[in-house]
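1st attempt posting a full record on here, be nice pls
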Amino acid sequence: MLFVSHVTNQLHPADSSALTCLNTVFGYEAFRGDQQAVIDHLIGGGDALVLMPTGGGKSLCYQIPALVRPGIGVVVTPLIALMRDQVNALRLAGVRAACINATQTSEERWQVIQRASQGDLDLLYVAPERLTRETSLDFLAGLDVALFAIDEAHCVSQWGHDFRPDYMGLGVLGERFPGVPRIALTATADPRTREEIVERLGLGHARVFLGGFDRPNIRYHVAPKDNAHKQLLAFLKGEHQGESGIVYRISRKKVEETARWLVDKGFNAFPYHAGLPGEERQLHQDRFLKEEGVVMVATIAFGLGIDKPDVRFVAHLDLPKSLEAYYQETGRAGRDGEPANAFMIYGMQDVATLGFFIDQSVAGEEQKRLERQKLSTFLGYCETIRCRRQVLLEYFDEVLAEPCGNCDTCLEPVEGWDGTREAQMALSCVYRTDQRFGVNYLVDVLRGVENDRVVSFRHHRLSTYGIGKHLGAKAWRSIFRQLVAAGFLRVDYEGHGGLKLEESCRPVLKGEKQVRLRKDPVRTRKARASGAAFDSSGKPTAWKSRNSETAFDSSESATLWERLREMRLRIAKEQEVPPYVIFHDATLREMIHHMPKSLDEMAGIPGIGAFKLKRYGEVFLKLLNLSEERAPPGRDPVKAKGDPDLSSEF
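the predicted structure (as tokens):
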């Protein structure tokens, strides 16, 4: 076996060995963005805080220094799934990697400990709660530790969206292992969270690398919630039939309902939430990772640390609690850099539900105030008429100079209108109904609906009764959403979602302040289910289709694509690893594009390192060569040779 660290440790200077490691182990010719600067800094013994978008290559920032520096790299990660995924990928690249977690037997954990003691490991993955045990720290003190990598570092922040108490004890690493470089990494951290990461981990002298938050391959789309399941179905059938993705729901009950509904509609879907038995949850996660075309319906308990690169969409059928959570969850799509979609629908009931959760939590008043503020900011994002990507990036203190051209508001610019008069009507209605009622009831009063409830409260006698007949119910619901987003109204979470006036609405009611509102895009009856935007001619606005981006120029290439995927899946099943651990989709497409004729040419394909070339090169090379031989008319060119079992070569 090729033990990579034995090779890279002999290479100097450091930047040369890092680049050689990138090429020979991971199969890539050049670093991206800040990767090399981070790696050089860490190899030189410096500490670092790295913010890099999901899919930006954070893992290489600590994996390569761990291979180049003498000793063992210790990686802290919160989820077992991520440990297993990265360990499997590293082993198949020829790296001596292992993990210690609660799913292993005592014998398996002892074997890993023995390997580490004997210097037979390059990287060791552990959970924070295990690492901070006194016995673990004493054990590590007897090893030559190359570095500590703290992944998902935002989990240390009590202000963050994924706080994990076990991360709080990781500050001890700087005290117990002075001189050992530490790197904290995250894809999601606003300035306040970054400050807390530095403080709690004792990284006051660390160099901060801000790699940017933009994920240009993800298309953002937000629509009002009408019929959640019908909207989801239209979205999936229109763009993602047979592709892998995640659907997020706010509760376990909704997760179960949506998963069953998708199965009934013919999708390969599974539920995932904390209420499922551990074995069932693990089975569903394994199927999502190892099979293609699986839709996981989940609460936010699923996804942190999931390394699957070919997630083509993330759909939110309920509102996440903050822009940080939204960014983190949508970032699980398109980690391979290919086009992906972030689709979200929401309504005021979502806002009321999340607000209720905040008020009922055991957090302190300052924390609750912050969470309410974040929810309000997120609502503003949903109702914006600006480029969504610009609004999202501004939240993380990043400026995008020009609109992105790859979000719904860019593709179908939202028309604004002077809604001052209608805003006054809505605010007056809230006031005259004693600030007790929710949106649907207020809309009934404004539109003059004479139902039993309105009559029982005698609100049919109010001056605001029926003054809004000129607009439909959906238009009024949109107005109320925007007034809440603008801070003129707030949701009374304790009062079952009733709306209350904010002081800021006074100038509007007095006619001293103009209110500009967004006009929701017109939708045809056929498109109402999906919430898709339509242009002025009534044609649906085109999404950036992954299929159109990666379409092949011939049926032979398309057939070869399927055959390569079949071979990859066959090998992956034999090795009990996800297919993408063998080769990413992008690597298979590069094979088809370049059609290498030899192993030397195959070595030039991105994503094929020396160890994978030796292990899988001949198998895939033979499959490519077979495809070029002419087949009888009407027959699959790959099967022209009798479809040999090439996996026997593996």
